[in-house]
Write a structure and sequence with these properties.
41% helix, 8-stranded mixed beta sheet, 278 residues
Amino acid sequence: MKFSLILATVGRSDEVSRLLASLDAQDYRNFELIVVDQNKDDRLVAMLTSYREKFAIQHVRSAAHGVSRARNVGLGLADGDVISFPDDDCWYPAGLLQKVATELNRHPELDGLTGRFTDGDGRTEGRWLESSALLNRYNVWRGAIEFSIFLRRRVVDAVGNFNELLGVGAGTVWGAAEGTDYLLRSLQHGFKLKFLVDLTLHHPVKTIDFDDGACNRQKKYETGIGHVMRINDYPLWYFPATCLRTCAGILLAMAKGDFPKARFKYVSVLARMHGWRG
């Protein structure tokens, strides 16, 4: 079982170095790294060259902006049996690829696996499913993040490319949820995807304080989430239900005197509504 790991990257060096080191530490060695480089400089060239004798690397340039466009370039080059999409600031714990390979070999009926993340010190963000479960259109929001997705070749052959209007750098207001959109389209094809609660990758926790930076970032995320809900034809009751839950969170935060968190959730629900209308 060969893995094709498609890495879209721009503007980062130290983080990419950390990811490369974590890949070199994997005991499962049948993988290739496809680096779709959107940098205008050569910051990654020497770094990638130093790892070429350790594992297979394809390094391609892409002038097109956006993580979805970069991943689509990578999909055209990947020849692995399992496809994944590591972020350029994530890193893999020891034994991760072996765990995924073992699980997929043990369960040929599964078309893909997803996991969760911590920052390496056990901290995380978001609301994850509490136990392993098959994904559906309602629990998928709590059962995956882009860099935790591992799909068999038959899935990407059927689903095709990422929606290039979604994700960071797309040039639209829909700055996230491109991975969830891909999983929803996979589910529509009838593929069986499973979230494993003990499949843990590593990634920095971005929302520590509910400051202006966190609110601005959340606007992009939630606008993408609202739009993906709209274009994937959720029933009419579902979107208001998600907004009501967030509104309940606003009231709870205010009752506790946590006004920065209340503002953060208020920004979230407004952005989600904007994405839905868009």
